[in-house]
Amino acid sequence: MALKLYNSMTNRLEPFTPVHEGKVTMYNCGPTVYSYQHVGNFRSFVFADLLRRHLERKGFEVKQVVNITDVGHLTDDSDEGEDKMELAAKKERKHPLEIAEHYTNQFLEDWRSLNLQEPHARPKATEMIQEIIELVEVLLERGHAYEAGGNIYYDVTTFEDYGKLSGNTLDKLAGHRVEHDPNKRHQQDFVLWFRNSKFRNHILKWDSPWGEGYPGWHAECSVMSAKYLTPAFKTGRFKPEAFETIDIHTGGEDNKFPHHECEVAQTEGATDKKYVNYWLHPRHLIVEGEKMSKSIGNVYYVFSLVKEGYDPRAIRYVLMGTHFQQQLNFTKEGLGAARAALERLDDFLLRMHEADGEEDADEELRRATDAFGKALDDNLNVSGALAAVFDLMREANKKKLGKEAAKRVLEAMYSFDDVLGLKMRDVKPQTADEAVEDRIKEREAARQRKDWAEADRIRDELAAEGIELYDTPKGTKWRKK
Ligand SMILES: [Zn+2]
After folding, report:
1. How far is the CA of 44 from the centre of ligand 1 (A)?
2. What is the pLDDT of residues 397-437, one digit of tens each?
3. CATH superfamily entry for domain 19-282
4. What are the residue boundaries of the structural domains of the chain, listed by start?
5. Which of 89, 137, 253, 477 is a plausible cystine mate for 96, CB 3.0–4.6 Å?
6. Residue 116 CA to ligand 1 centre (angstroms)
7. pLDDT in tens, 272-319
8. Residue 127 gets which letter from DSSP?
9. How do beta strands 246-250 and 276-280 pair?
10. How many Å separate Cα 345 from the centre of its chain?
């Protein structure tokens, strides 16, 4: 079955066909590193990771780029706010780049703890200034941009398709209030390069043909996607004619407008080519039934949940477990349920390592493999895929599998895990440890003489050391928690 994805550009479920057979280019809008990234931000990245892993399991060669925004993202969409990085720097009395480094490091740590695959490039906006200037030059040459009051603006009236992604066409935006900027020809025009703003003490500035300044937020994503996913910058200079349409672009639903709409206007205005074939926008999440907000104090971060003792695998499980087009209610109860599901999974994997019966599970395996792939091909229906995994576990648990059959089950589980990213290969029976084995024998002896108190005492003592006992047909085994 072919993969189908819900494309926000056409608002339809569409069969996925990449530009180049067997290859996929994918751009995921990354974080603005002025503060910690919360679980809502990570929902988007877990979704992108799941998509990439599914494509790779299907045999596609995926190239993934996730940017880091460290300049130019304003607090207000209408170009009148202050740069988020500069504002954070003032508040924390640090240089904007120190702020960026601090929050980038935490972001990367959370990224790894959720077992997200490394993208092929992770460019920073501050490293792309030359390329951004080149894009702005092309837009000026082609009449899509103009200089006014020192800033360079994109002229949205020159781009007929403005609004095609978000539905916010200029007609519809006519009544939409934005802070009035007398330099703009049309109030929906957006800044490509800032020289003048209300915030004259902007620290990060670069030379440009239009004077010292800094880029607008949207420009970086057009540039980075072109640079790392297409041959447009191959010779070091921006060559619009060498640009190739990108297969997939993702970002949280709040990025759709104005950010992604402006990216489309920039890249298509500069190249006359279609920017992206498939736009995917995961929905927001709420926590404990409420909107997350710093003022309510209910913002969940990956690292703080881990500090509280929640397993990063359980966090990943919850973030990926709800379909990307549905709102996810992220709760601590949900993390508990995920933990229980993962324990069932781990117990199952350990049992497969110990199997010594005679039955096979070929039919169950065939069914599960088929159902797993079909569910994900259906617009990344992850709950269907997880159901296939747990059905297989339930069926296999009813049987006394032989060694070879259990090995085949494990191989199938590992193949599912190439997409799910739950580190199933790490779940193995513990290798020998004499001290532990001796205490298990003592416990066995206590149980045989029906000294339950002593048996429980030994079990609790081991549990306190992080050693968990479980029963198998071959007697009691143990593993580190
Ligand atoms: Zn972006």
Report:
1. 12
2. 999 999 999 999 999 999 999 999 999 999 988 776 788 88
3. HUPs (3.40.50.620)
4. 19-282, 286-426, 434-480
5. 89
6. 19
7. 999 999 999 999 999 999 999 888 889 999 999 999 999 999 999 999
8. G
9. parallel
10. 23
